[in-house]
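Input for the complex:
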Amino acid sequence: MTQTAEAIVLGAGIVGTACALELARSGLRVTIVDDGVVGGGATAAGMGHVTVMDDSEPQFALTRYSQQLWHTIRNDAATPLPGEAEWLPCGTIWVAADDDEMAEVHRKHAFYSARAVSTITLDSQQLAQAEPNLRGGLAGGLLVLEDVVIYPPVVAAWMLKQCEMLSAAFVRQRATAFCESGDHAEVTLADGSILSADCVIHATGTWTPLLLPSIPVHPRKGHLLITERYAGFLRHQLVELGYLKSAASAGGDSVAFNAQPRATGQILIGSSRQYGATDSAVEPQMLARMLRRAEEFMPEIGKLQGVRAWTGFRASTPDKLPLIGLAPGYRNVYLATGHEGLGITTATGTAKLIADHILGRTSAIPAAPYQPSRYTPANDNARDGGTA
Amino acid sequence: MNTSVRHIEADVVIVGAGPAGLAAARAATQSRSVLLLDDNPAAGGQIWRGASERALQSLTRRRETGPLASPRIQRMFGVRIFAGDAARRALRAETATGALQIRYRDLVLATGARELFLPVPGWTLPNVMGAGGLQAMVKGGLPIAGKRIVVAGSGPLLLAVADVLRSKGAKVVAIAEQAPARAVNAFAWSLLQHPAKLLQAAALRTMQWGIPYWTDAWPVACIGNQQLERVMVMRKGRRVELECDYLACGFGLVPNTELAQQMGCAMQGDFVKVNDAQLTSQPHVYCAGEVTGIGGVQKSLDEGGVAGSVLGAAPVTALAALQRSRARWRRFEASLNHAFALRPELSTLADDETIVCRCEDVTWGRIRAHSHWLEAKLHTRCGMGPCQGRICGAALGVMRGKTGWQVESIREPVFPVRAETLAALGARREENS
Amino acid sequence: MSVSASLSVSVGGSNLRVPAGTTVATAVAMAGSPAMRTSVSGERRGALCGMGICFECRVTINGQPHQRSCQTVCAEGMEIETT
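Predicted:
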């Protein structure tokens, strides 16, 4: 056993590679461990949005901070994102079906305006002009200008490559165990070898409980369908405001209309949420429910050829906030997991918070709301009972 | 939302109206009613389209087991089946105008094969086509009289295609067979021991018409401006440039196993595993023809015949005769595949600029940086287009070896399908359950 | 194939008479160009497999894009556009 690195990151998804890159750029020797395809888990299965959200102040703080960091990455001419990252600054329109939801549009607009997020309120006619394929008679919407869509597996691979250029090591193996001894941590690999470092960061999404069984991360299954190329059919990411009810629901299955234009001209259609489903098979019923919901908002979307359907598992937590910080009971073991449907957006902010803690830096946003310690057994009342 | 869903309750459903499917239909109709489905606009199959018509005619004379035009055979063409559910004994499909939900008592998958294409520089030029593909287009009315055509690749299909093209007035410049002369001669000798009349006849006719048949020869580049103008052929270690209007090219056949795989049928290597009755690992799901092993028209006819006879409760003696014949053709299949095994040089035809994935235009240079299929797919978009990796996946199986380069999982829809079809069919099931 | 009946289609705006039973892929070729579509990197492409597998022969038929021309039989008045 040798001291192989200063930090070991488990998981080469978007969160793991973002953490590794932040640490490597901060001067640490980093080793990344993953036996799968880089960005091949939830990173590849998700929609790839970089979106501000406002379900709660901590959620807003992390998504907004992270989005700004994404724009910084995008604007860094020294290390440009590859074209295959498909950076598409399309913005998001939150679609209001009725007056109740329009009231939510006004609330969101006020919320965002007070926090310097650029949004535009659209009335029914403006919405129809912005997205001609939406059905008529919708109440309006809120256009969030700085939201972006990317293709995450390529971004994860790019981040890993940046790490490797900073002398980070990528170990293509499965981590089977870890432990803490004294002032360092060790990771055992599938071939029996042991890596040692000052700290270990678990960024393995839904797989986190394999090595840390007490961590309350639960898979939440989702379906997606991607179409052939239909340039111009859709201009912005569209999300129905009813999405909030779907995403926030603790149990049961739900669907909500969410469609994205891709840089290729394809349309990505979502979304569904299921607890307790562990089979990754495409379920015709869920797919159908999801697509019927999409047709209710965009009748012509049904005419588009779907070329591929797939499922994925979001790493969800009971309170809908990620787990970022020291693992309960450890001094050198960190968690960067439980991002549910916002892992792409919040990967950058997560990486900053982790690196800040390790390096003793002051964070740009309060880190307390994301601390895993909120789920220590002594603090059980933090759970909101959503562990279906 | 306004998609009409048609519900069909059928007895025996046969997917694929090529030799295997037609033979299965004919045999099953003895005591069962049959619904015969095909994605294509007409029956007859794709690959062996020319040969199979004659074969079916001869079959009608040789083993009369029921008229093909039986009122007990219902046919539907232009039906794209994108998912099956073996537990519920149901198929889901799309037509040009609507959606279909089909319930079956027994199912025969006779989905045939597609051609293996190997990327060479310039192969994306218009008029570079599959050998069976050009044949199918010609059957569909493409006029080729007076056109100069190079036929290239491997296997007896090249002879059958050259024969059809010539009969339609094309000038076949040459047939370039990659296999060595020794192997082809050994195979030709074996033809004498097997009653492969169709192939013998095609081979004889091409010789009779003086079409050059080159062994140890394969295309290394396609050249042209807006469309194909010349093909560079490697022949016995030397490059030969041939002027032509079309290249009809295929390096053998790849089974269309996607639907069987999506339905959970166990595989044996590249093919669907079947028992002596052509039954797969899934109850009530049979497979026949090229999906169980590439062996040509006669094997397909016999396998379809066996499946149909089992379903139609044919007399034991008739079934046994078919099974004996099938055994003979499976031995023939083995000698065929041995003779036309692909030479290693064919895995290095592409250069770094050569497009391998034609849907997403991903070059060999980008793909070869990756260690397996899923990684290449996620990081380069290779295989993410509408063919779902059917063309590039098969090519990469040759270029990179099969290990790690198989398409990773088969999910529904196994063919691109309108979103409204998925919405309508899934919805119905949900309401029923 | 019977050539007893023929029908009229348009390919890229030009009218063309084809025998009944002709596939759209064949009609496009008869109209003069083997190219059916422009690939994602800008190459002109024509039919490859001829049997509905490769999706190279996609054209727009009666306003519906991404239709496989080799699997579609011409109908009277059909409007076909290569892309």
